[in-house]
Amino acid sequence: MAVINGGNTVNLNEAAAMSAAQDIIEQAQTTSALEQRALAIVNLSIDLHKRAIDLRLQAEEILKEIRFQ
């Protein structure tokens, strides 16, 4: 049995394989987008952690200045 695909004739196995390939491509694109979002969250978390450390160090310096006055 054949299926017409944009003017091309393909058999059902080819059509099924093309459909499966398209599904895999869509899943890969979705996975890639999710990985990019996860990486952005990780990077944001690292940045916030660095800022928290900087603030703690600044607070320690201010406390030292207050104690020595």
Helix-strand sequence: EEH
Mean pLDDT: 87
> How large is the radius of gyration?
28 Å
Strand content: 5-15%
The total strand number stands at 2
Structural class: mainly alpha
Termini separation comes to: 92 Å
Low-confidence stretches: none
Overall shape: it is: rod-shaped
Helix amount? over 70%
Q: Specify the biggest β-sheet.
A: 2 strands, antiparallel
Number of helices: 1
Strand order of the largest sheet: 1-2
Structural write-up:
Helix content is 81%, strand content 12%. Strands 1-2 form a two-stranded antiparallel sheet. By secondary structure, it is mainly alpha-helical. The model has no long low-confidence stretch (mean pLDDT 87). The chain is built from one helix and two strands, in the order ββα.
Short description, anyone?
The chain has 69 residues and is mainly α. The protein has one helix at residues 12-67, and strands at residues 2-5, 8-11.
What keyword list fits this structure?
rod-shaped, 81% helix, two-stranded antiparallel sheet, 69 residues, mainly alpha
Layout of helices and strands:
Layout: E1 2-5, E2 8-11, H1 12-67
Antiparallel strand pairs: 1-2
